[in-house]
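EI: anyone free to look at a 399-residue chain?
SC: sure, send it
EI:
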Amino acid sequence: MTSFRTLSDLTDLSGQTALVRVDFNVPMEGGKVSDDTRLRAALPTINALRDRGAKVVLMAHFGRPRGQPNPEMSLRPVVEPLELLLSAPVWFAEDCIGDAPRAVIADDLAPGGVALLENVRFHGGEEANDPAFAAELAKLGDIYVNDAFSAAHRAHASTEGLARLLPAYPGESMRRELDALDKALGTPVKPVLGIVGGAKVSSKLDLLKNLVAQLDHLAIGGGMANTFLHAQGVDVGGSLCEKDMADTAREIIEEARRQGCELLLPVDVVVAKTVKPGVESGVRALDRIAADDLILDAGPETVARLKRAMDLSKTLIWNGPLGVFEVPPFDKATVEAARHAADLARAGKITAVAGGGDTVSALNHAEVVDDMTFVSTAGGAFLEWMEGKPLPGVEALKA
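SC: here you go
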């Protein structure tokens, strides 16, 4: 993996201010934080810096205020739950640049103290990665720490520009993410199996093209598998299918063949006439799909085949469910495959890395998130990494 400075390189930060980019774009209900997962994820970095005597100044965005102050998108509601998690006071600055944060840092923060700045997206210079805005942020601190992998695919002032102006380090959460991703695609133990699900081929074209050049085996599920089956002459009935992507699907199939990547497409499917919980459903061979059938999940032989592929692999990377897992009984394939992957990971037989919004929801539904080797909650950043694209917020941290 590319070398990065790490927080372990820092011993005594007394008298120094650490500017820390975190992901506090948290769910809110009634003006209160309803899920503190992202706050908890930042605690190891915050505490590591506090232990070294730094003044810790947190920067984050919330929502899409489009460069203008918006009270409904203030980060102030984050202060109280963060104080509870830290068992320490958290000072709040009414702005992220200028006199307000300078006064908090100079007058209120002692070594080991923590402050939170107001939403960086209240300034247009944040998303524009304006050098002048980044320079104003840089005036507030001595070192920069990025602990927000989920925002690393954005070349914004607080994720990329600032890292060019101060000594830059990945935070603990960022470091764990980068280490896990390197083990999955950077320097994986082979054979490597990928599972890609989801609705549409068109939304994951770059991802599929990159993976067939990287993996030993690639299983395709969800609605996008229907497009691949259609491209091979299978009648998918009334199922979701991008028929205009058939040529593209055939190109990916041919590229996988050239690269020596085995494509695992469904060999049987679960169908129903409508998408409703508990509706009557049945397993169909690919040549027995009726005109009004909807393919809503992978069949048992497809799942068995996928489990055998997992057994023969050393590394697994997973993005996207195998069926309409939100509507039972069409969650069966995803749950069964996820639990098998988790069993292998728990036994140390496979490195299993998963990510993407629907994937995290599906793994939570299967109750296996804690058993996987690593589960990334970063949606866009995780996908762009799988697509092989450089992430500006990561590139800027490279030593």
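EI: The chain has a mean pLDDT of 95.
SC: 👍
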